[in-house]
Amino acid sequence: MAKTLVLAEKPSVGRELARVLGCKKAGEGFLEGEKYIVTWALGHLVELAAPEDYDKAWAKWDMLTLPMLPEKMKTVVIPQSGRQFRAVQAQMRRGDVAELVIATDAGREGELVARWIMEKAGWKKPAKRLWISSQTDKAIKEGFAHLRPAAEYDNLYHSARARSVADWVVGLNVTRALTCKHNAQLSAGRVQTPTLALIVDREEEIRAFRPKEFWTVRAGFGGFTATWRDKNGQARTFDKEKAEGIAAALTGGTGTLIEVKKTWKQTPPPPAYDLTELQRDANKKYAYSAKETLSIMQNLYEVHKLLTYPRTDSRYISDDVVPTLPERLRSVLVEEYKPLAQQILMHRPLQTRYLVNNAKVTDHHAIIPTEEQPELWRLSGPERNIYDLVVRRFLAVLLPPFQYEEVTLKVKVGNEILHARGKIVKDQGWKAAYDRSFVLEEEDADEDEREQSLPELKQGDKLSVQWARTQTGQTAPPKRYTEATLLTAMEHPASQGLDKDQSRILEETGGLGTPATRADIIEKLFSAFYIERRGKELCPTSKGIQVVGLAPEELRSAQLTAQWERRLGDIARGQEKENVFVDEMRQFAARLVSQVKASDATYHHDNQTRSPCPECGKYLLRVKTKRGEMLVCPDRECGYRRSVKQTTNARCPNCHKKMELRGEGEKQIFACVCGYREKLSDFKKRRSEKSAGKGDVRRYLQQQAQQEEKGSSAMAEQLKKWLEQNQ
C-alpha cells in the first residue's frame, strides 16, 4: 500500500502530527502508521554554501577576492544536522512512498526549509501543502482534508530563496569588506544596518539636544484646575517674567465661564494582535525581548496549542474564521475571562466589525485563541502572561466601543483665557477587558492639560480664582528606543524624517524586515556588540556608532530596505521575477564593496583596556553583552574572548537578588549588589548541601556559559571560520 510522507519543521510538531495521523511505529528520525510516515527537520537542514565551496581563493578573507558573486548558488547539508537529513532522505527514497505533504511552518521560511530539503534529497514525486494556523487536533484534521498542490506555493519559495540569496550576497560581501578594510570584526546587512542606523541617529539627536526652560500657569477654581493658554493654544512660555505676570494678574481675580462644550465620543477597540504588536506590548508590560515573546508564542502555538500561528503580520481575521468564534469564546470560559466571555456569547450576533477584514489578511490571520480548552496551571509564568495579553485583546475586539462625554471649559479672567478638560464615562465597552493599568499610547493625555472630574457648570457662571501659580519645566530630548518602540520604528520607518512620497512607499511595504525576522535582527545587534541595554533603553556602543558611519550610505537607508521587502512580497504574489531581484542585489553588492574599498574612513577601538590578550598580546576590548561583560581581542586573526562577569539566576542568600559570576577558573566568585561575596567552590558546596548534586551545579554552570552571546548568523559563522583559518 502506497504511503504519504509528511515533512514537519520540528520534532515536536512532527510528533503531534504523527499522533493525530495514527503513526505509532518509531524509526530513525520518523514515525510510521498504516497510511502516513511523519519525519521532520531540525529547523533548516540545508543552507547556502559557504564562499570557499565555490572558490578556494574565497576561503581567505582578502579584499582582493571581493566581491564574491557566484554564477549559480549552491546548497549544502548543515554538518550538525547531517544525521537527520539522511534520515529524511531515506524516507523520501522509499519505494512505498508515493507523495509528500509539506507540513513545515506555513510561511516564507517554512517553505524554504522544505523545498531545499526536497531539492537536496532529489524528490521528484508529487507534493502537497498543509497550510494551517493552529496546531489543534481539529485544525490538523481539517488541514489534511483540504491539502493544496505544492505548486501553488512555488512563488512563496522563490521569494524565500531570493531573500536568502540577497542576504548572502550583500551581507557576506560587505561584512568581509568592512572586516578586511579596518582589521576589526565588523558586520553589516540589508536589514541589520538600517535598524542600527535608527538607534544611532536617535542617540545623535539626544546628544545634540539642548534643553530649554519653560513655564506654565495653572489656576484653581475650587472644584477644578485650569491651565492658561496663549492665543495660539500654547500652554508653555519661555518667558519667565511673562508667566509670573500672568499668575499675579490671575491671583484673587474673578473669571467668567465663556464656554462649556460637551462632545459625545467613542473609541473603537484596538485590532487583534499581530506578532509585532504583541512583542511591543509584552516589552512595555513585562520587559520581554522580541525574541523571548516569539519563543513563548511558539510554545503556546506548538506545545499547548492555545494560540494561533505567531509569525503573522495581520491584525484581522477573514470571513471563513467567523463561524469558529463561538467555540473559541467557549474555550476561554475560565477564571477571570469567564464573565466577559459569557457576556459576549449571550449577545448574538457577535460584534465582529472590528475583527473581520478580508482585505487585510495575508498568509495568516491575527493571533487569537484556538478552540482548545486551556489548563492554565500547566503554563509557565511568561506563557501565562502572553496568553493573558492575547485573550484580553481577543475579548476586547469583540466588545463595543468605549463611549464617553468629553467636557471642555474656557474661563476668561481679565484678558487671559484658561482651559480645563474632563471626561464622563458612559459605557466602558472594550475597556472592560482591561484593568486600569492598561493605557494605549494614543490615549495619553496632554501633559499640560490633564483630564479631571468637573463639577456641573453652565456658561456665564462667575468663578473665583482661589490660587494661581507658575510651574517650570524643561523641554525633553527624544526618548531612546526600547525594544517596543524599536519594533514600531522598524514596522513604520516612515516616521524617521522622510518626505511624504517616501513615507507613502514605506507604509505600503511594511517596513524593515518582517514580523518573523525582526526579533532575530535585534538579537544580532546585541551579539555583535553594536548595542547594549540600559534598563529598558537600547543604546548604541562606540562600535555600533562607528559601523553606521563606515557602512556604505545606501545600505543605511530604511527606505531602500523596505522597498526590497515589498519586492520580495511581489515575488511571493507572482508579480515580479526572482532572477530580476537577485541580479539587482548582485550589482548592489558589487557597488557597496567598491564604496568600502574607496573609503578613507578609519575605525578606532574606544573600549580598549590595559589587559593584554594571552594569545597575541594586543590590548583586549571590554564589551557589554545582554547578560554581563566580556573581554575580546580586537585582532580579527586572533578571536580570543573571555567572560568578565555575567548575571546569573543564582540568588543572593541575603537580599535574594540575582548575583553576578565574576572572574574565571578557580578564582570565579559570585557577587551581589548588596555586598555579598561567595567563591564558586563555596557556592557549589552550599548547593550540594541542599541536595543539589554535582550534576545540578555542572548543568547550571553550563547553562550560564551557553547563554553568552556568540552569534549564530551566517556572517558570524563565516567570521568564525575565517578566524580558525587565520590562527
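the 2nd protein, sequnce then structure:
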Amino acid sequence: MDFIRKKKKILIAGCIFFGIMFLCTLLSKGIYGASLPQVETAVPEKRAIGHTVEAAGNITAGRELAVDAVSGLKVNQIYVDLGDSVSENTLLFDVDQEDLKEKIAEQELAIKKLEMSNEQARQQKELDAQKDLLNQNRSLEDYALADTEENRKIEQAGDSVAKAEEKLNDHLNNQPKQTSDEDRNNKKQEYTDWESRMKDLQKQQISASSELESAKSAEEAAQKALDDYIAAHGSSGNTGSGTDGGQAAPEESQPQESSAAPAAEGDVSGNDTGGSTDNENSDDTSSGGNQGSGQSQDSGDNNSGNNGNNSDPEREKLEEALKAAVSRRENAQKRLKEIEDELAKGDVDAKTKPDYTGEDSAWDNWKSTKKSLEDSVDSAKQDQENSVWDKLDAMLEAKRKVEDSNLNGDPDLTIEMNQMEITYRQEILKKYTQLENNGGQVFGEDNGIVTKIKISPGEIIPQGASIVLADLDESLKFRVILTKEEKKYVDIEDTVTLKLGNSGKTVQAQVAFIAESESMPGSYEAVVYLPEGVGTVGQSGTLVASSQSESYPITIPAKALHGENERYYIYVLRKQQGILGEELAVSRVYVNVRDKNNKYASIEEGAIDAETEIVVDSTKELSEGKVVRYGKQ
C-alpha cells in the first residue's frame, strides 16, 4: 500500500510539474510575441497611377495695344493709372506746351536749312558740269603730249645703249699684260727653295757655333787637367810638353767669331755631315795644325826615352784627352767656316721674293671696270626696255583719263537725301502742330485696360509705346509656371480646370503653349486661353490638371516605399525557425520605381512577384532580419 501511495504522489507531482512548464511556455511565448513589432502587410496589385497638378497663375491680356506719341517731348501730367479702363476719347496724358513750341521751332529751322542746302547743291551741280567739260579738253591735250614725251625718252635710251657698248668694246681691246700661272709657280718655287736652304744653313751655323764653344771649353778643361797634374807631380815626366805644348794649342787655334745671323737650333743632319768630314781629316789637322800638341808628344817620347821604363799612365791619359779636345775644336772650326762660306755665297746669289701684286691689281681693276661697263650696258638696255613699257603705261593712263573725263562723276544724292529728310521732318512737324492744336493732350484710340505706363511727368517721351493697353476685344490668357516634375503631366492641348479668384468659379480650357521660362531657367511657362468674356486682367487663379498612367503589373502602397541615398527599398515578410518554433522576419529588397504618386508606386518587375507580402506599416522601426508579427489587418 505504501508503494502504491508513493507512486500516486510521484505521478501527481510530475503532472503538476509539466503543467507548470506548459503554463510557463505559454506565458513566455505571449510575452515574447507581445514585444515584437506588429506589421501591416499587402500584396502587389495591377493598377494605373493617377497624377494631379495644381499651380497658381494670373490672367494677362490676350493682345496688347500701344499708345504712341511723338518722342522727344516733355510729359506734363498723366491722367490714367494701371488697371484703368479707357475708351476712344479718354485723356491719357499731356505734354509741356513750352517744350512743344521749342520743338516746332527746331523742326521749322531744320527744314529751312535743308531747303537752303538743296539750293546750294543745285548750283554746285552746274559748276561741276563746267569743270567736267574743261577736264575732257585737258585730258585730250595731255594724251598728245604724253605720246611725244615718251617717244623722246625711248630715243634717249637708245643713244645711252650705243655709248655704253662703245666704251665696253674699247676696254676689251686694252687688256693688261699678265704672267702665266706656270711662270709664277716656277719663280715662287725658286725663291722657296733658296729661302729654305738659307734657313737651314742658319740653323747649322748656330749649331756649329755652339759645338765650337763646347769644344773650346773641353780643350781648356783638358789643358788645365794636364797642367794641374804636372804641377802636382813635378817635371820628371815631361815638363816642357805640359807647359809649352799644352798652352800653345789654344792660342794658335782661336776661331774667328761668325758674323752670320743666328737661326733656329736643331738641324742635326747638317752637323752630322760636317762632323764626318772633319773626322776624316782630324789626324792630319791634329798633327800639322797644333805644334804644341806635337811638342808635348815629342817631349813625352824623349822623356820616356830618357827615363827608360818609368812611364806615367795617368799623364798619358790626360795628354790623349787633350789631343782629342784639340782635334774636336779644329773640326768644329772647319765646319763653321764651311757653313759661313755657303751663307756668304747664298747672300751673293740672293733670290728676290716674286711679287705680282701690281700685276694682279691692274688685272682686278681691268676686270672691275669691265664688269662696271657691262652693268652699264645692261642697265642702259633695261632702261631702253623700260622706256617702251613706260610709254605703254603712260599712254594707257592718258587714255583712261580721257575716258574718265567723258564719264559723269559720282551721282550727288544730296538733294534727294535732303528732300527725304525734309519729308520726314514735315511729318513730325505735322504731328507737333496737330498736338499743339489739341492743347498738347493725348487721347486713347481704342477700348482697353492700362497694363503698362512707360512715361513719367517731367520726363522725355521715349521711342516706342508710351502707354500699353490690354485689348478687351480679344480673349484673355492664363499664365502659370510649372516645375520640371509638373510638366511631365501637363502637355499642349490637354484639357485643364482653372479655378479663378476666391469665388470658386471653375473653367474648362485647353493648354495652348508650353516652353521653358526665360526668367526662371529649369521651369516652364504654360499659357491657357480663356473663353471670351471670362476673367479680368490681373486676376489670380489655380490650374488643375489630371492625368492617368498606363496599368502597371506591380503596384504597391506609397508608404511601403523607403528611400536611402537616392535608392528605394521595401520590406517583405519571410518565415524562419526560431527558439519558439516558426516565426516571421523581414528582409530589405531594393527596387526601381517606374512611377508614383502620393498613394501608390509602380516598381519594375523581377525584384518581387504578385504573391510577395510587403510591409506597409509597422509599430516599430524595422531593419534587416527583424522578427515581427502580424498586426491588425
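The two ends are 60 Å apart (CA to CA). The mean pLDDT is 79.
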